[in-house]
Amino acid sequence: MSSSAYEGFNEESFFDRVEAQFVKKAPNLSQTLNIAVIGKVSAGKSSLINALLKLSRRQALEIAKVGATSGVTTDLTILKLDEKVHLVDSPGLDDVRTENSELTKKFLKHIDVGIFVVTGSSDSSQKKNLDDLRQHCDAIFVVLNKIDEWDDLDPSVLEDIIQQWKTDLEVEKIYPTCAKGYDPKSRLPTMDIRGVAKLRNDIGDFLEKKGKDLLLARHMAQKQSHAVKIIAVALAAVAGEAFIPGSAIYITATQGAAIASLSYLYTGEILSAESTLSILPKFVAETAGSNLFLFVKSFLPPTGIVDVAAAGVAVVITLALLATVNYLLSNGEELEQEELLRSKFRTYHQQAKDTFKELALTDVRDLPSWTKLVNKFLGSRQ
Ligand SMILES: Nc1nc2c(ncn2[C@@H]2O[C@H](COP(=O)(O)OP(=O)(O)OP(=O)(O)O)[C@@H](O)[C@H]2O)c(=O)[nH]1
Ligand SMILES: [Mg+2]
């Protein structure tokens, strides 16, 4: 007997082994995240923060104040998004230093991401501020904001200006942005947001490598794209894990870790391994007395070889259950709502089966883009 989904363990040890894998896969949410947004008065720092977090104008007023009159961000420089995530919005680090509180000292000791905001024509005197910031940061993103100021001119003018900034600041990359529309005094009916998605993605990719992307994504007003990422990563993992001996352990742990991530994204709550894994059997509670072991048995063959077909089944179940969790959490519902959970799951399960039938994949490992698939799957409903 080789490649059995249950190889080498019994029902009693199953939970423990899944839990051990869950701990490895679940996001580390005990870390801190420090972000500094530095730039001259009125450069658009507050506007950019609001645009990065995709806040509405109303929400923006509560987070980072935008002012037509300059110098609005004067008093408290540290914004606490939560106990672990701190954001500084200040003209320079000197202003942070003068505050000299325990919080600012700790902040300055380690900044994960520095966002340096400039505007207008290049100014080489800014380089010392950038260098100062760089000394404290793991990564620096230089932003040229208010690019709309050059809208009436030939595009080559903006290109030249960007080039000049690169030379003067000695950086390879500059993010041109427009973050206009958050000013409450502005009579603009719509916002003009440009280049911010690219900046957000690159910051997200950097934080992902440090295992900190979820800490920030949790504060974004729109969470769907991050949820898609969590689900896509889990599906890709399951598609591979199905072929490993003892696959049931890995697949279950992957599902659990994805549920824990989704839960943190939407609620900010950190679920324990036990409470996360106790959710899984609820999906198939039709089988009376269901536990985690029976849950896995319901879709993985208990003996024999895990083949391509079984892997497909595991992926379909995983997609259906994570789509269900996403649906409930994004609608502010509790995962304990068992009836809703199961009825949604039944619908998604059928749709997931249909989706994969339409794809006519012989091997789920051949799917080119999980993100695209999940986007389409979630986007076409809700
Ligand atoms: N035209 C244009 N105006 C912008 C842009 N971004 C912000 N503004 C405006 O510039 C002004 C200052 O924006 P803030 O976001 O308050 O800038 P800040 O850097 O936080 O300013 P302080 O907190 O005073 O240092 C506001 O009137 C904004 O609406 C942009 O991309 N284009
Ligand atoms: Mg400000």
From TrEMBL:
The keyword Cell membrane does not apply. This is GTPase. Residues 34-146 form the G domain. It holds the Pfam family MMR_HSR1. The chain crosses the membrane at residues 227-244, 308-329. InterPro entries: GTP-bd, P-loop_NTPase, Small_GTP-bd. The keyword Nucleotidyltransferase does not apply. One of its GO terms (biological process) is tRNA methylation. One of its GO terms (molecular function) is GTP binding. It comes from the Bacteria. It comes from Halomicronema hongdechloris C2206. Keywords: GTP-binding, Membrane, Nucleotide-binding, Transmembrane, Transmembrane helix. One of its GO terms (cellular component) is cytoplasm. Gene3D superfamilies: P-loop containing nucleotide triphosphate hydrolases.
